[in-house]
Amino acid sequence: MNQEKLSLKSYDYLMNSTFERIKVGKFFNENFEAYSKDFINKIMKYFENREEYEKCQILVNFIEKRFNHEENFKKINK
């Protein structure tokens, strides 16, 4: 039982700490690895299940900005 609480708390910490990094515009984790779209979608699903829709909207905006091919890839060569 104690291990279960620890695991849930760790998952909650991961979701919230990652969200806070994304919220301030950090595209990478502490090891400088870029957040994948799948991982961000998992975070969004986590907050959606908790009915924290404001956080979901921030994540949607982040995905649109971060994974926009026109804005983030093509402008580099211009």
Q: Characterize the largest beta sheet: strand count, sense, and whether it forms a barrel.
A: none
Roughly what fraction of the amino acids lie in strands?
Answer: under 5%
Number of helices: 4
How many beta-strand elements? Answer: 0
Shape: globular
| Whole-number total of structural domains | 1
Task: Describe the fold and architecture.
By secondary structure, this protein is an all-alpha fold. It has one domain (2-77). It contains four helices and no strands. It has helices at residues 2-23, 37-49, 53-66, 69-72. Helix 2 (37-49) runs antiparallel to helix 3. The radius of gyration is 15 Å and the shape is globular. The model has no long low-confidence stretch (mean pLDDT 84).
